[in-house]
Amino acid sequence: MNSKDININKNGFREYDARWLYPKDINLEGIKTIGLALGTQISKHAKKNPRVIVGHDYRSYSEEVKGALIEGLKESGCNVEDLGLSLTPMVYFAQFELKADAIAMVTASHNENGWTGIKMGIEKGLTHAPTEMSELKDIVFSKNFIKGKGSLKKINNFKNIYSNYLISNNKINKKTKAVVACGNGTAGVFAPQILREIGCDVVELDCNLDYTFPKYNPNPEDMKMLHAISEAVIKNKADIGFGFDGDGDRVGVIDDKGREIFSDKIGLLIARNISNKHKGQKFIIDVKSTCLYSNDEVLKNNNCEVIFWKTGHSHIKRKVKETKSIAGFEKSGHFFFNQPIGFGFDDGIMSAIQVCHLLNNENKKMSEIIDALPMTYQTPTMAPFCKDEEKYQVVDLITKQFKEFKENKTKINDQLIKEIITINGVRFVLEDDSWGLIRASSNKPSLVVVVETLKSNQDTKNIFNFIDKTLQKTGKVGEYDQKI
Question: Which of 86, 109, 263, 275 is catalytic?
Answer without folding.
Answer: 109
